[in-house]
Design goal:
Strand order of the largest sheet: 3-4-2-1-5-6
Strand content: 15-25%
Helix content: 25-40%
Mean pLDDT: 96
Structural class: alpha/beta
Bound molecules: adenosine monophosphate
Distance between the termini: 10 Å
């Protein structure tokens, strides 16, 4: 796997695909700069080598040129974080970009305007990719968040740098973290899958059953399993058309010697609201008119024990409706258990969508081994897919 460390960037122009798709508020201020901070080590290494950086990214989903999605809004933030002046050009290809790139001196940074102002970006257009490629000497992909897309700047462009392409530190770290769970994970390996639906996690479950020893199931998808097992789930979330699939998963897990841990109790509510009346009950006997919105205390203890005994931990999806404080307790307890196991030497990876939000919200970000920066890319990796952006560098 070629990374930055295989190159010396002295007097080289690095064309770096970063993921600066950051959230902006109404005043166009960055509200979460994690993705910019995550790209810093790569940029600094190149500058310290004596090279220069040309940064390219998308922001949002503009349809053509649209000021609202201009990367000019983040220039100040990027300068603050990197501590280096950032030049900006109002188009990612064309004369202005070409001249600015040509004049770029070692130690300098150029940020190109939103790639998606050209529809050729998402179309993976070859001529557009070639035009972008002409700006730099070495192509560096450091954007895990878009590595699952075969776009011009993430994948197609790599062919124009047959010997001069590599992963940035962030992307390399994402790949290593996933491999630590999926390929080289120290046993016992435990996966915790929560979230709303079985249907959105089925490909992941299928792929990971060969790699794990324990599967903890929580969140809304619990109830499809419990109902499939003959439980009474009241008004809890259920996918009626996935009941037999749920049983098949349990059978498959058994055949592969994976221990499945389902909740034993639930925090139930008489409405889908933080103000609803609540109670605790056996997960197999939820009264009509009530729904399970979090795991109960006995389940918390049961799951914590499994996690304590695990050496490798993967967490995807909250265990309850964590957005409502009254149903966040199970997810917080899980965060604590994973933090404790990590402190004792386990490797823990949190990835994919809402679990990342939960980890940040409840302050566990620095207490787990790695928090992935890519939602969809992480999910596709867990599904066992080779991401096009990664394959293009490995080719
Ligand atoms: P996902 O995107 O599939 O990971 O699902 C995350 C969503 O699942 C969050 O918005 C949670 O509120 C929701 N969720 C978790 N537990 C439950 C539950 N017991 N009932 C309904 N929704 C849930």
């Amino acid at each position: 796997m070629k990374t930055l460390n295989d190159f010396n960037f002295k007097n080289k122009k690095a064309l770096i695909r970063v993921d600066f798709n950051v959230p902006l508020n109404d005043e166009f201020k960055v509200t979460d700069d994690t993705r910019i901070r995550s790209a810093k080590p790569t940029i600094i290494k190149i500058l310290e080598d004596g090279g220069s950086c040309i940064l390219m990214s998308h922001l949002g989903r503009p349809k053509g040129v649209d000021e609202t999605f201009s990367l000019k809004h983040i220039v100040d933030k990027v300068e603050d974080i990197l501590g280096v002046e950032v030049k900006f050009v109002s188009d990612c290809i064309g004369e202005e970009a070409t001249t600015a790139a040509k004049n770029l001196q070692p130690g300098q940074i150029l940020l190109l305007e939103n790639l998606r102002f050209h529809q050729e970006e998402t179309a993976g257009d070859e001529a557009f990719s070639k035009a972008l490629s002409s700006l730099g000497d070495v192509y560096v992909n450091d954007a895990f968040g878009t590595a699952h897309r075969a776009h011009a700047s993430t994948t197609i462009i790599a062919q124009f740098f047959p010997d001069n392409k590599c992963f940035g530190y962030l992307l390399a770290q994402e790949i290593e973290s996933i491999d630590k769970v999926m390929k080289t994970g120290e046993k016992p390996v435990c996966a915790i899958l929560g979230g709303a639906k079985v249907s959105s996690k089925i490909t992941i479950i299928d792929n990971i059953l060969d790699k794990i020893d324990h599967l903890i199931i929580g969140g809304g998808m619990t109830f499809t399993f419990i109902k499939a097992q003959g439980g009474h789930i009241g008004n809890s979330l259920v996918e009626e058309d996935k009941l037999s699939l749920a049983n098949e998963i349990l059978e498959k897990a058994k055949a592969k010697n994976v221990q499945v841990h389902l909740p034993v109790d639930a925090i139930i509510a008489d409405a889908f609201s933080n103000d609803a009346h609540t109670n605790t009950c056996d997960v197999y006997n939820i009264p009509d008119g009530w729904m399970g919105l979090d795991i109960g205390p006995n389940t918390e203890a049961l799951f914590a024990q499994v996690i304590k005994e695990s050496k490798t931990i993967l967490w995807n999806g909250p265990l309850g409706v964590f957005e409502m404080p009254n149903f966040a307790k199970g997810t917080i307890a899980l965060g604590h258990a994973i933090s404790e196991a990590t402190k004792e030497g386990a490797f823990s990876l949190v990835g994919g969508g809402d679990s990342v939000a939960a980890v940040k919200q409840f302050g566990f970000e620095d207490k787990v081994s790695y928090v992935s920066t890519g939602g969809g890319a992480m999910l596709e990796s867990l599904e066992g897919k080779t991401l096009p952006g990664i394959a293009a560098i490995l080719d």
